[in-house]
Design brief:
By secondary structure, this protein is α+β, with helices and mostly antiparallel strands. It has 19 helices and 45 strands. Pfam families: Glyco_hydro_2 (PF00703), Glyco_hydro_2_N2 (PF22666).
């Protein structure tokens, strides 16, 4: 097997459709493969960055045009077979080799392989790929297939292209075209490995891997031998002439299991597979394949009990409380996300205490880099099939495309031990039941057969060791889906909680007692440096043109304000508005996660919407489009701590509810110590307290009711609770920020150099709530840890600022950089205190 990348000498040309009057020649523009039209035009200086200001709208002509990619490559005869391999064409493409049509493709999510032997010529060969406008193709096909409901201004459900490429309520509308994955010329003789699909299972203490092989033969002459080696064990089989499939089984005694993070180690074993002539005349393999695999079991527990029907993941027989986040493509142009960027993002997920990432169904089947890094970090993965927020035709030609892409994706991904769930769709069952689709469909197919027959059949055949669910949200039913049953029932299966962001205050998370939450979230703006790099608005305001073009949610700004004012007054200065909205986002999500964790084991997990962004935008993400963690990220890390102490009302519907302290232990060791709870004034005076010895068994929650003198304050505006257990601390505030008698911030700030940057020490003179250093306002590359730190009077905290710039104490202690909630509600000015006047008491 010889594989040669066809990655050089590509050129891009506009062939049909509109074009901007401001651009020059659009012929033979240097192009990059993998790449897209937008990024090639950007690299050539023909367009500005689509992510900046209002360029998205100005560049709409690109997606409405047709484009051609061309290149040349050298070839000499010698092997029996020469094949062109296109790992990804986005989306409707016609390929010609030396003027001969060799491929018509119309699915971004599939690999295409072409036997080019008959059309190649010795020496120079010419390759051309013509792309039709995805927008015009989707419009045309929506008429051919019959109109079906969808959540967009384009009928993305008529074409097998990344749905969010057409825009989303957090995503830019590019609808780009291009060769988004590598192109190869593969030359081989005799045979090659067409498919290698290991299925790793656990049998007692042993690991068993069944390796399913499919071969492509150039000729049926002669027997072949296939071998597999893993962990010192090997298997070998001979394939007789004409045979093209085989299964090799290898057993490893006393295998080390793969565990999700927090439950054990991530044991991985290298599996090597090769084929060669059975007569042994050559020591060189005809073809080979290698991957790291792991041994684990994953099961779905759906117990029927007094609270409804549960939904819980069990790995290696142990229940795992899911601390998850939804994942979208990390760039609107996915080819730009390399392994290093995946490593940063998945490292951030692990550092935030996450143990599962859900790959959302409006994006892509994620890359090998994504999955192998999740394997290494112990991050469970949940991969949606790519059917999101829409009704889909079950007829041809869409049906064959969906089935083909699903088979390819499952066969590719099933090797990864991190893959725990294959999910039929995102919100389509819910849409059919609750979003008035039935009247619009008028009897047309909408996707049920995919979710209840086609996709579960593919999963059972190709990945029997992976859980399948028909949709998210879904309520368990014998047939996979019951249209008479609410698929978003909190008491059964999984649910999405969006009525809060859309309509209610975030404290209403406590109105729900869900079994499992697969989506919920709250919006907030990106980091200041991300915002100001993307926008040139002057003045920059919440409603300036650039801000509105980077706010994609329906009525998003109104919802931001409506969700803020129960807690904080609406600021009228942009830096304060930005900080208030980021803080509110963090508090909303932390409120939800802590409530869901306090309900364990009735609730078995939550998956916040969302971890990441694909461009600079106001959104639900914890990490913005430039990779900057927002305050929400710090809230995720705190709420997902292995040991969580949280105070919750026993009756969320009551404004005078008794309280309880919930100690959540998500470790394998008991958590023991003295639980001390104090009712204090904001100035620090203890009004009443209680101390009890507490033992929290492994993987459990212990709830401690608080006595009335702690639960019910005399002056809610001036009092708070402080609870501590074995070094873990939490707070309960009897009043919202805006109703709390917070003093202006008084503090001492000190700075000193440290390895990699600056150590900023803040010592409080007054109660300081949610102290956060927004150092990216001074250095766009700066990172800070920790964030959202509450300090009682006389307490200190250190903030490590990683930066290459010589930032000064004056810069770092500026009120626009050194933030606290006090700044948003107190009426006095901040008072930095000289060191010799600080009251150390």
């Amino acid at each position: 097997m010889q594989r040669t990348a066809i990655s050089h000498g590509w050129a891009l040309s506009h062939t049909a459709g509109p074009r901007s009057s401001s651009v020059g020649s659009l012929r033979d523009i240097p192009a990059t493969v993998p790449g897209t039209v937008h990024t090639d035009l950007l690299a050539a200086g023909i367009i500005e960055d689509p992510y900046l200001d209002g360029n998205e709208a100005l560049q709409a002509w690109i997606a409405q045009s047709d484009w051609r990619y061309t290149t040349s490559f050298e070839w000499e005869p010698g092997d029996e077979r020469s094949e062109l391999v296109f790992e990804g064409l986005d989306t409707v493409a016609a390929v010609a080799l030396n003027g001969h049509p060799v491929l018509h493709a119309e699915n971004m999510h599939r690999t295409h392989r072409v036997d080019a032997t008959a059309h190649l010529v010795p020496g120079t060969n010419h390759l051309a790929v013509e792309f039709s406008s995805a927008i015009r193709e989707a419009d045309r096909r929506s008429l051919d297939l019959g109109s079906r409901p969808h959540a967009n201004h384009h009928p993305y459900n008529a074409l097998r292209k990344m749905a969010c490429s057409f825009g989303w309520d957090w995503g830019i509308d590019t609808a780009t075209a291009g060769i988004w994955k590598p192109v190869y010329l593969e030359q081989w003789s005799t045979a090659r490995l067409a498919s290698v699909r290991p299925v790793a299972t656990v049998d007692g203490a042993d690991g068993v891997v069944d390796i399913h092989l499919e071969l492509a033969r150039a000729s049926g002459e002669g027997p072949l031998v296939a071998t597999a080696a893993i962990g010192g064990a090997t298997a070998r089989t001979v394939l007789s002439p004409g045979t093209s499939s085989a299964v090799l089984s290898v057993r490893l005694p006393s295998v080390n299991l793969w565990w999700p993070r927090g439950y054990g180690d991530q044991a991985l074993y290298r599996l090597d597979v090769e084929i060669g002539p059975a007569d042994g005349r050559t020591a060189v393999a005809l073809d080979s394949w290698s991957r790291d695999i792991g041994f684990r079991t994953v099961d779905l527990a759906m117990p029927e009990d007094g609270g409804g029907t549960g939904f819980g993941l069990e790995v290696n027989g142990r229940p795992v409380f899911v601390k998850g986040a939804n994942w979208i493509p990390d760039d609107a142009f996915p080819h730009r996300v390399d392994r290093a960027r995946y490593a940063r993002r998945i490292g951030q997920a692990a550092a935030a205490g996450l143990n599962l990432l859900r790959v959302w169904g409006g994006g892509i089947y994620e890359s090998e880099d994504f999955y192998s890094l999740c394997d290494e970090h112990g991050i469970l993965t949940w991969q949606d099939f790519l059917l999101a927020c829409a009704a889909y035709s079950e007829e041809e030609p869409l049906r064959s495309e969906i089935e083909a892409e699903a088979r390819e994706a499952v066969a590719r991904l099933a090797v990864h031990p991190s893959l725990a769930v294959l999910n039929g769709n995102n919100e389509n069952l819910w849409g059919y039941t609750d979003w008035d689709w039935q009247a619009l469909l008028e009897g047309r197919s909408w996707g049920r057969d995919y979710y209840c027959t086609v996709l579960p059949g593919i999963a059972a055949e190709l990945a029997p060791h992976v859980v399948y669910t028909p949709g998210s949200p879904f309520t368990p039913a014998a047939s996979g889906f019951d249209p008479q049953t609410d698929p978003n029932d909190p008491s059964r299966g999984t649910m999405h909680i969006w009525d809060l962001w859309n309509q209610k205050d975030y404290l209403h998370y406590r109105d729900y007692r869900p079994r499992f939450v697969a989506e919920f979230g709250w919006q907030g703006p990106p980091a200041w440096s991300t915002l100001t790099r993307a926008l040139s608005d002057d003045p920059l305001t919440p409603e300036s043109p650039g801000m509105l073009s980077h706010q994609k949610a329906a009525d998003g700004n109104t919802k931001l304000v409506r969700g803020l004012v129960p807690h904080l007054p609406l600021p009228h200065e942009m830096h304060d508005w930005h900080w208030a909205m980021q803080l509110n986002q963090a508090n909303a999500v932390r409120t939800g996660i802590e409530w869901f964790r306090s309900l364990a084991p009735h609730c078995t997990g939550s998956i916040v919407w969302q971890l990441n962004d694909c461009w600079p935008v106001t959104s639900w993400a914890a990490i913005d489009g430039n990779g900057h963690p927002k305050p929400l990220y710090a809230a995720l890390r705190a709420a997902n701590a292995d040991r969580l102490l949280t105070i919750q009302p026993t009756d969320p519907a009551s404004t005078r509810s008794p309280l309880e302290a919930d100690a959540v232990n998500d470790t394998d060791q008991a958590w023991e110590g003295e639980l001390r709870i104090e009712r204090r004034t904001l100035s620090g005076r203890v009004l009443s307290d209680v101390a009890v010895g507490l033992r929290v068994p492994p993987r459990s929650v212990v709830r401690t009711p608080l006595p009335e003198d702690l639960s019910l304050p005399e002056d809610p505006a001036s009092e708070m609770l402080v609870a501590v257990l074995a070094g873990t601390r939490t707070f309960w505030h009897f009043a919202e920020y805006r109703g709390q008698a917070l003093d202006a911030a008084e503090f001492l700030a000190e700075a000193e150099p440290c390895d990699g940057g600056i150590l900023l020490r803040i010592t409080a003179r007054t109660l300081l709530r949610d102290v956060t250093v927004l150092a990216d306002k001074l250095d766009a590359d700066a990172t800070v840890d920790p964030a959202l730190v509450t300090l009682l009077p006389a307490e200190s905290a250190e903030f490590r600022i990683r930066t290459a710039l010589p930032l000064t104490l004056s810069e770092l202690s500026d009120r626009r950089v050194l933030r606290s909630a006090n700044q948003l509600v107190s009426h006095g000015a901040e008072v930095p205190v000289p060191a010799d006047e600080l009251d150390q008491g």
